[in-house]
Specification:
Layout (H helix, E strand, L loop, with lengths): L3 E8 L2 E8 L6 E3 L2 E3 L7 H13 L1 E14 L2 E13 L8 H4 L1 H4 L1 E8 L13 H4 L2
Parallel strand pairs: 1-6
Antiparallel strand pairs: 1-2, 1-4, 2-3, 2-7, 5-6
Length: 130
């Protein structure tokens, strides 16, 4: 299975986002998650793995809330609840080792009332965060 799975985590009227800073590009905000690997048993397993790697969090993956195509593959967003773990101060997993290629990642809780003013990608997700 190919594609990507993304976690939409909201607590106390704040969304957990990754601030992405890349050389010569505008700053944007993305949702945690990533590619579905061959060893993953589908998008839910991939998302559980990605949240542990990137964020240090065990999540319960809920319902699918949005789907679009990204680089010719499905990019699926799921509501998620944090079950356990401690949120990392810096991103973990392969992304932590590739900052020279992929730019910087900053893990942030963003107040829902401030989301509209940010460059959230994909932009359609802004409406989901109100």
């Amino acid at each position: 299975m190919k594609g990507r799975a993304r976690a939409v985590i909201i607590q106390d009227r704040k969304a957990l986002l990754l601030k992405r800073t890349k050389k010569d590009q505008p700053v944007y905000y993305a949702f945690p998650g990533g590619g579905i690997e061959p060893e993953d048993k589908g998008p839910v397993a991939a998302l559980e793995r990605e949240c542990m790697e990137e964020l240090g969090l065990v999540v319960r993956v809920g319902k699918e809330i949005y789907r679009h195509e990204f680089k010719g593959e499905p990019d699926v967003f799921y509501m998620c609840d944090v079950v356990s773990g401690t949120l990392r101060s810096e991103i973990g997993g392969p992304e932590a080792e590739r900052s020279d290629i992929y730019g910087e990642y900053e893990i942030l809780w963003v107040d829902l009332k401030d989301v509209n003013a940010l460059n959230v990608q994909p932009t359609a997700m802004k409406a989901m965060l109100k």
